[in-house]
Specification:
The chain has helices spanning 34-50, 79-85, 90-105, 115-124, 130-141, 180-193, 197-211, 215-219, 222-229, 235-250, and strands at 7-12, 15-20, 23-28, 57-63, 66-72, 77-78, 148-150, 159-161, 167-169, 176-178. It is an alpha+beta fold. It has a 5-stranded antiparallel beta sheet with strand order 1-2-3-5-4, with helices on one face. Strand 1 and strand 2 form a beta hairpin. Helix 4 packs antiparallel against helix 5 and helix 9 (222-229) packs antiparallel against helix 10 (235-250). The longest helix has 17 residues, at 34-50.
């Protein structure tokens, strides 16, 4: 496959995303492990089988020595761009965003890894001291275990609206089965880390109202998802994440 004929859609620290004819090609950097690539492809295949609207996986292969995941190109515009281009209707877009997430949580995918198992591993890799890790593990063990389909990085940028007004969710590398409120806490955190407190609070209010979930219940997951983000070792995020871990750990 000749990538010189493809269009670059996005460049990230460890991947470049191309469009080539009717497919999307996600090309990883050379250090990206085969296990991680195959896990992401498997996640997409598993979610696809649920019937939830996601791109169809085509193949996994190497291109110029780098692993690549190839799946259907979804023609459309992201909700993030729609919000940016039409800010006066931001709340309406968030209404749809939350409705779609609640629909996603109505599905189950038994072959996905459990969210709690993933969080336990992340806590152990967070760099926090033994006392903090122990407290976070105890908090996690005390929270209800569910089997709902969770995206793990559900943001407006990962929702594509087609010309026919169908909504598709992309980028399933972090998918798990678990508690919907953990997934919501992660989305809330992503908005806070992006400096969009207005988006974060609008999202939280709508999610809790539409799902009939107490805000305090979602907040129980915030220290856990903040500790999992520490694994990425992004210096400019560390103090903010530690403040969340410490506050919600002992609140």
């Amino acid at each position: 496959m000749d990538l010189s004929k493809a269009t670059v859609m996005a460049v990230r620290p460890n991947k470049t995303v191309y469009r080539y004819e009717d497919v999307t090609i996600k090309v990883m950097t050379p250090e990206y492990s085969a296990c991680d690539v195959l896990n992401e492809a498997m996640n997409l295949a598993i979610v696809q089988e649920t019937g939830f609207r996601v791109p169809t996986l085509r193949e996994v292969r190497k291109i110029d020595g780098c692993w690549a995941i190839i799946y259907d190109y979804i023609q459309g515009v992201s909700l993030d761009k729609m919000m940016t281009d039409d800010p006066k209707n931001t709340k309406a877009y968030f209404e749809r965003f939350v409705d779609l997430q609640i629909e996603m949580h109505s599905y189950t995918a038994d072959r996905l890894k459990y969210h709690t198992d993933k969080m336990k591993m992340k806590i152990n890799q967070s760099g926090l001291d033994a006392t903090q890790r122990y407290d976070l593990h105890m908090r996690l063990d005390g929270l209800p275990k569910h089997k709902k389909l969770c995206h793990g990085d559900y943001t407006p940028g990962n929702v594509i609206i087609t010309p026919d007004d169908e909504a598709y969710v992309i980028d399933w590398s972090h998918a798990t089965q678990g508690n919907a409120s953990a997934d919501a806490a992660r989305t809330y955190l992503r908005h806070k880390l992006a400096g969009r407190d207005d988006y974060a609070e609008m999202y939280m209010d709508l999610f809790c109202k539409k799902s009939d979930t107490a805000r305090q219940y979602v907040q129980k997951w915030l220290a856990i998802v903040a500790s999992s983000q520490l694994v990425k070792k992004i210096p400019e995020q560390r103090d903010f994440l530690l403040s969340w871990v410490n506050f919600f750990e002992f609140e």
